[in-house]
Write a structure and sequence with these properties.
Blueprint: H1 33-43, H2 47-75, H3 80-88, H4 97-119, H5 126-135, H6 140-173, H7 186-211, H8 216-236
Helix pairs in contact: 1-2, 4-6, 4-8, 5-6, 6-7, 7-8
This protein binds iron/sulfur cluster.
Length: 252
């Protein structure tokens, strides 16, 4: 680890390295491969292709993390193969009804989002966006930037929210975390980043709502759906917002 890296910062971030102010202090983000991935994503012909490059990057990171873990286990004098064998017998606890419900909703949000943009795609073609920009008060360039950011943010968190909710539940159920700090633990950290993803998404939907007034009703439906997930998570993880994320929440 380089000296100025912040330990564990990448565990509770939104993985949007391109926009991250800590990219030079993060072992994952400072990786020069990120530049290649970003370039590939920028040149992608479709959102699907862009997502493919992003997922490939994540998969590559997992391989590297796996190697680091092996080394850490070895350094601790433990037997890696024995740990793997024991892990095979491990039976994860059964999900609760609440857990299933929230996870289902987070997965449904992925589909709702796709369905929304498919149904209303005519609003998001360049000509229509330009038309809409001219109707809005304020500077058209700034408005255009805001809309682009909102769309990018909504897409970025589309899958992220479900992934982080899943991780928060798994951590909460896992006995391994029983003796962890009641606030600074993995499930609160994961729940917090899921909540941040929801909050950012909701803010972005509000931007679209202001810009595309004709879409007020369907956007309100999406917002209500996301708000339901948010409230559910806050109820199940009441200390999540108190979790201090390395780097991002320190010194605040
Ligand atoms: S902390 Fe920043 S640079 Fe590191 S993985 Fe997360 S978003 Fe990327």
């Amino acid at each position: 680890m380089k000296e100025n890296f912040i330990s564990g910062i990448h565990s509770y971030c939104d993985r949007w390295c391109e926009r991250c102010r800590f990219v030079d202090r993060c072992a994952v983000g400072s990786d020069e491969k990120i530049a290649t991935t970003e370039l590939q994503m920028a040149l992608a012909d479709s959102p699907e292709e862009e997502m493919k490059y992003a997922l490939q990057h994540v998969a590559d990171r997992f391989v590297e993390i796996g190697k680091m873990l092996q080394q850490m286990i070895k350094d601790q004098g433990l037997d890696y193969d024995e740990i793997i064998e024991e892990a095979k017998d491990y039976e994860p606890p059964k999900p609760t009804q609440v857990q299933k419900h929230l996870e289902k909703r987070a997965m449904k949000y992925i589909k709702i989002l796709d369905a929304f943009f498919e149904k209303h795609k005519t609003y998001f073609v360049p000509e229509k966006v330009v038309q809409q920009l001219l109707l809005l008060p304020g500077d058209p360039d700034e408005n255009a930037e805001q809309i682009k950011n909102a769309l990018d943010t909504i897409r970025w968190f589309q899958f992220f929210i479900a992934v982080k909710i899943n991780r928060a539940w798994n951590s909460k159920q896992d006995d391994l975390f029983d003796d962890e700090d009641p606030i600074q633990n993995d499930f609160n950290g994961s729940a917090k980043v899921a909540l941040i993803g929801i909050r950012e998404s909701m803010d972005s939907w509000e931007v679209l709502r202001n810009a595309f007034t004709e879409l007020d009703d369907p956007i309100l439906d999406v917002l209500a759906f996301l708000d339901g997930i948010k409230k559910g998570m806050e109820g199940e993880f009441p200390d999540a917002w108190k979790f201090v994320r390395p780097g991002f929440d320190e010194g605040m």
